[in-house]
Amino acid sequence: MKTNKTRIHRIRTVLFAFFCLSLAGCSPSPGLEKTEQGYLITPGVGIENLSLNDSIQHARTHFSPHFVTKDGYLLLPSKGIDTAYDVNGKIKTIFLYYRLPEYTTFYGKTDKGIGKDSSVEEVYAAYGVPTAESDSVISAFGALPGAQEHSMDYEHQGITFTFWDNRLADIRIFPSR
Description:
Elements: H1 2-23, E1 34-35, E2 38-41, E3 46-47, E4 50-51, H2 56-62, E5 68-70, E6 73-76, E7 81-85, E8 91-97, E9 108-110, H3 120-127, E10 132-137, E11 148-154, E12 159-164, E13 167-173
Parallel strand pairs: 2-9
Antiparallel strand pairs: 1-2, 3-4, 5-6, 6-7, 7-8, 8-13, 10-11, 11-12, 12-13
């Protein structure tokens, strides 16, 4: 009888210890949480467990082991994410895709609420006048041939928004300049 009580006490102690440890600081870095709306995108920084200047190994260990390395990029179509890295293997740009064919739609919004269903006008309202803006037509070899592409660069904040036919196609995160 004494051994059963001892075992139950030990199990309770271990469970209580795990509970306390989970409360003590096992939360993500401030500003990089995953919210009810998906990942929180922080301009000039990144998303939870995937930040600018992270190593390839860190991205695979802390975000997803399923990244595929190809020609200077880490590809993760199942999450709607790619990254570009430099010669030292450090992430320099994060691409978050909402409408790229053969990619799952990225699940997340910026810290100012911009996400998959946001408009050009909403980006203006949230971020102001862009550092640079451009318009073009996607070529026959692009992801959506013939679509009107509109890009809004906010270099001082480290974020670019690209729209195809007035629908948000992707967000790019890079070091602010």
